[in-house]
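Reader question, answered in our methods column.
A reader sent in the components of a multi-part assembly and asked whether the whole thing could be modeled at once rather than chain by chain. We filled in our standard form and ran it. Here is what they sent:
COMPLEX SIZE: two components
ENTRIES:
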Amino acid sequence: MVGTQPQPVTIAFDVMGTDHGPGEVVRGAAMLSLESPHIHTLLVGDRTLIDDALAETKHNGERISVQHAADFIGMDEKPGEALARKPNASVAVAARLVAEGEAQALVSAGNTGAGVLACARHFQLIPGVRRAALATVYPTRSVRGAKGDPFSLILDVGATVEATADDLVTFAVMGSAYARIISQNERPKVALLSNGIEPQKGPPRVVEAHARLSEMKDIHFIGNVEGIDIPKGTADVIVTDGFVGNVCLKMLEGVHDTVVELAQYAYKESLRWRAGLAMLSSGIQRIKDITDWNQYGGAPILGFDKIFIKAHGRSKSRAIANAGKVAAKVVSNNLGAAIREGLKK
Amino acid sequence: MSLPDRIDPRPPRRIYRWDLDKTYLQTEFDSLRDLVRTAFQKAHQKVAVPGASALIRELSENGDSRLCIVSGSPKQMRAVLEEKLKLDGVRWDEFVLKDNVGNLLRGRFRALRGQVGYKLPAILESRVHAPVEAEEVLFGDDAEADAFIYSLFADLVAGRVDERVLSQVLEAGGVYPDDALRVREAWKKIPVGDPVRRIFIHLDKLTPPAHFTAYGPRVVPIFNYFQAALVLLADGHLTAPQVLKIAVEMVQTAGHNIITLSNSFQDLLRRGLPLQQAAVALSQALEGPNKLLAAMRPMPDILAAFSKRLAALGTPPPPPPVQAVDYVSLIHHALPRNHKGRTKPQ
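And here is the structure of the entire assembly that came back:
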C-alpha cells in the first residue's frame, strides 16, 4: 500500500567465520542500517571485534544491537563436531536468538553445514516438510518478475542427498513461494531437472514427482528441463535432489571459472586477442554485472519455520547488506505461511 | 521563585550551551538550494531534532541552570528562530547569532564559513560572566567544528592548553587578528577551573563515532537525545522520570520504539559509558508514585529490552586510557569542509 511504513524487522547476522573476517559483515549491517530504516540488525559474535569495526564505520546506532558470542566455527571445521565442542559459537547463538523471537531471520556467510545444523537444532520444520532444502541462485540469460531478476533458483543443492518424490514436490512448492516473494514473479515457472524433457524420463521418484506436480493447479509446472536449460533460464525454479543439484552447481561454477581463466590467458597471450576482448568489454561488463552474486546477497534454506539466508563465504559488505534485505523481504512477506498454504493444496 | 530570587536571581549552578542548526534544528544547508529554503522557512516550518526540546525543557525544570545558544545562523534570522524556540516551549538566557552581513561588508570572507574564530570567542566571553563553580554541558553536531571548539574551550578554561598551542591553532584555523585578540582577552579573564563535564555531538551526518576518539571520553557522540538524557541521568543532571518523559515524547512524536531506544542504550554501553545503573533507576522510577509514567506504554517493555541488551554484552572490557588532546594535529576537523587541509571523516 502506498505511503505505509514497512513493519520493523530484526535480522540476526552471524558475524564470525567468514572468508573476509567480521569487518565485512559489520560493514554490511552498517550499510543496511543507513539504507533500510525498517530493518534492525542483531550482530552476533565477538563483542570487541564488532565494536571496533562499528566505531570506524558510518552506521545508525539506533538500528544495531550486539550479542556477544566468544566462539565461532571456522570454514574448515566439521559442523557436527564443531557445534558439539562450541555450543556458544556465534551461528548457534544467532539461531537460538531467532528461535526465541529476538530476531526474525538469520544471515550467515560462515560454514554452510554448521549453519544448516544450527538451524535444524533450533528451528522447527514446517508441517508437511520432511527435509529442508538448501537453495542457490544461478544467473541466467533471461530475466523474470517485476524487477527483472536475472537469477533462477535451484533446489536442493546439498541438504537432502536422496530426495523422495514427496520431497521433490515439497521443494517445488517452497521454491515457487520463495520466487514469488523475492523476484516479484506472480507465476514462477517450476521445472524438474532430468535427463530429458519427456514425462517418463528420469528415475522413478522424478517420474512420480512429475505426475504429481502436473496435477497441482497452484504451481506453474512446465515439466522437465535438462542441464542445458539452467543457464538459459528456461525455468525460474529448478527442482532436483541434493546429490544432482550439488554436482550440477559445482560444474556450473567450474565452467564460469574456466571461462574467466581462458579470458585472462587470452588477454596475456596475444595483442590481437587483447584487442578483441577490449572490443567486447561493454558486453563482458554486462555479463559481469548480471552474474555478480553480490547483488543477490544469499540463498535460503527452505523448510524451516524461521528464515535462514546463507550468504557466500566470500561475501563483501554489499552482498551482506543485500542478504539482509532478502531476509527482511522474506519475513515481511511471510514465506512460512505461503509454503504452508502451498502444501495444503 | 520567591521575591528575593526574582530581584536578585541565584547564580546558575549549570550552564547548557547549544548550537542550533543540526543540533537543535533539523537544518539542511549542504547545497545552495537547501540554504535558500532554510532562509525562507517560517518558524512553524522548522523542525526540531526529536527529543531536543524535551531535553532542554527538562534540564531547565531544575531551576538552577542557564541556556546559552551560540549559532552560526545569520543575525537576520533571529526573529524566526526565537519564534520557533518559543513554539517549542524553550526559554533561553543568551542567544548569539553570527554577523555574516557584517563579515561580508568588511570583506572577511574566511569568517563566513569559519567557526573557530566565531564560536570560540563567543563562548569564552560568555564564560567570563559565569560563576566560577558553574559546571557546563555543551551540545553540538558533527557537521561543523563543534567537537574541536568545545574541547578547546574546555581545556583552555582548565589551563590544559598553553599560549603557544592556542596561537598555532588560531593561525591554522584562519582566525582573523581581532577575533584572536577577543579569544585571548576573554581567556585571561576566566579563572582557571574545570567546569566542562560533557560535550554531546549529535551525529546528524552519522559520522563514525571513532572520529571523535581523539577528544577523549568527555566528548560523547550521540545518535539521538535519548542517549544524551541517559548520560545526563548517570551524571546527575536529570532524574529518571525526566528521562522517561523525554523518551515518551520521542516515542509519541518521532516514531521511536522499543527497538530504537534499547539499541541506543546498548550503543552507549558498548562505547564504555557507565550506564548499567541507568536501567535500574528508570525501573525504580516506573515503580514509584508517578502513575502517569507507569501507565505509559511501552515503557516497561523498554526496560525489559534494556536488561536484555545489557546482558547480551557479557563482561565489559576495561575503559580506554585518558589521553591529552592534540589540538594542533586536529585543527583540520575544525576547518570548513572544502578547505584543503580538512580530511573527510571515514
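What stands out: Chain A touches chain B at residues 8, 10, 34, 40, 47-48, 51, 54-68, 70, 102 (CB under 8 Å). The radius of gyration of chain A is 20 Å.
Send us your own complexes using the same form.
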